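Good morning,

Attaching, inline, the backbone tokens for the sequence recovery test we're adding to the shared suite. The designed sequence is right after.
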């Protein structure tokens, strides 16, 4: 499906429904951790291959994308990275379980215009209140949070100085684009 159809279509019509079913099976006890790990491993490899073989001629904004520290669920991050690439962005993917203290300097070295964090589960309160707040205070770049974590911990994320994007990838990319465009326009008018 990934080789025949746009990633957005495959995400909406196949992958998100599959992930919802897997989550429901795990919660209800009819599925197992092994089942979830099997499908996650398969999807991570398939999405990673698609990301690896993408055309690299995008000239859009470069964004740093990573999972929260402690979050090992990379499928959402990969789906976001592929959708961002398809939309013309240049995502720099760092993967799962990324310490937030490393992100500011890494984003600077990679010449990124924003940092996007992905989270399937809301991180511990200390990660948002201290680590995320320290990241937003320590960088001039806007920091965004997407995935279910951004829905579950929206208020805490906003208090920490980041922008919650929600769990819809297309809407998140649109909001990210609008905010970065607005910041670029502010910079242009102030010079």
């Amino acid at each position: 499906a990934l080789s025949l159809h746009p990633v957005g279509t495959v995400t909406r019509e196949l992958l998100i429904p599959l992930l919802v079913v897997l989550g429901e099976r795990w919660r209800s006890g009819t599925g197992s951790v092994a089942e979830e790990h099997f499908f996650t491993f398969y999807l991570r490899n398939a999405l990673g291959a698609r990301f690896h073989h993408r055309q690299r001629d995008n000239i859009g904004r470069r964004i740093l994308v990573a999972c929260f520290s402690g979050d090992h669920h990379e499928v959402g991050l990969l789906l976001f990275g592929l959708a961002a690439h398809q939309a013309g962005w240049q995502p720099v993917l760092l993967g799962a379980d990324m310490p937030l203290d490393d992100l500011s300097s890494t984003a600077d070295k990679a010449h990124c215009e924003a940092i996007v964090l992905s989270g399937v589960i809301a991180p511990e309160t200390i990660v948002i209140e201290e680590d995320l707040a320290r990241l937003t205070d320590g960088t001039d770049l806007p920091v965004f949070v997407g995935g279910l974590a951004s829905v579950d911990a929206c208020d805490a994320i906003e208090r920490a100085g980041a922008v919650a994007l929600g769990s819809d990838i297309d809407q998140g990319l649109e909001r990210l684009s609008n905010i970065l465009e607005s910041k670029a326009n502010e910079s242009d008018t102030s010079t």
